[in-house]
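If you are new to this repository, start here. Below is one unmodified record pulled from the training split, so you can see the exact layout before writing a loader.
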Amino acid sequence: MKLTIFGTGYVGLVTGACLAEVGHNVVCVDIDQRKIDRLNQGELPIWEPGLDAIVARNVGEGRLAFTTDVARGVAHAQVQFIAVGTPPDEDGSADLQYVLAVAESVARNMAGYKVLINKSTVPVGTADKVRERVAAVLAERGVAQPYDVVSNPEFLKEGAAVGDFLKPDRIIIGTDSDKARALMRELYEPFNRNHERTMFMDVRSAELTKYAANAMLATKISFMNELANMAEILGADIEEVRKGIGADPRIGYHFIYPGCGYGGSCFPKDVQALGRTADQIGYEAPLLKAVEAVNNRQKGVLFAKLARHFGGADKLAGKTVAVWGLAFKPNTDDMREAPSRTLIEALWAAGARVQAFDPVAMEETRRIYGERDDFTLAANKYAALEGADALAICTEWQQFRAPDFDEMQGRLSARVIVDGRNLYHPDRLKADGWAYYSVGRS
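And here is the target side for that same chain:
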């Protein structure tokens, strides 16, 4: 099939590349000329394992192309994916201006039947707004063109997005049109050969499913962080508690790891947006507000532990803190809402210096913070420790899991570790003379 993807951000690029990988002919459209130029030169705007090879292969074999030509994109295919950003508005609701701008662009250029597919994460009722915008533009043009609007939310984990797309656990499609349903079934046929993964439902249910999934996972994380904070006070070990409750198949082991809070482009934004939707329909949703509040508080635990170790936040002035991990999670360079940012900015406010290392997020960090006298991006994890008064761990990259503690001891000026991801065994480190502070472990 011929397909058009509007947006070459995280969702759009992964979607376009993976659909080309199974044989579809895909054109990706973006208004950012610089981004399109980079993509045409083989440079990806995001870091995602395996994606570069798929993009290069499908561009080389002629199944994937990038352009800023909107008319070309609309003319290319019946199927038009909307995969642009929906950043939080000032009130926390999802900003739909980019989604509706794409809908308008398609309507201004369409000739013949089109299916507009909302791949962006959007609140319930967005399909209706897209439908209305298309109808208004067609009326302005004085033409009658048939079209359908479909909800097809993405369920991609950053760092594992290629695998998630090519081997999905479910494909959610919201539509009330038999014609659109047939096209969507054909589109996703390559992903259903082993067993049927497609779930058809009404549009509003599909829109709500995406928010419900992210809010549920965020709730599990915040709940575990609440328990971890209680465990520290009670003298319990949250890691043992985690294993005990995870063994219950009704709970499971996924997303019950305590830590220094969740980040990224999805959970913070989507929990907030779902809460805003509840406000708009007059429904009080205290649980959603609590999930967000707990997470915001949890992002401050590493700074609080450092301040406590040194005798107060005012005692951090002049100290140097090494930070391992800048991305919000491993296998991505995404620093949106990352706990590392909360820690680093609090340390700067207290007058401390930061020496940081991340395997892939260094350029993104430099883009965000620029050059500062109180900030050094180190060449490797051990270089970040040189002369530092403490180490804080924000991201659970594999290379941080089994470090050379003798090497660390030789680099740090004091054996102090504040571990936001519970990577090490407290008793072992304390026996070796380390001051080791983790989350939810006494």
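Two things worth knowing about this chain: The first strand starts at residue 2 and ends at 6. The radius of gyration is 24 Å.
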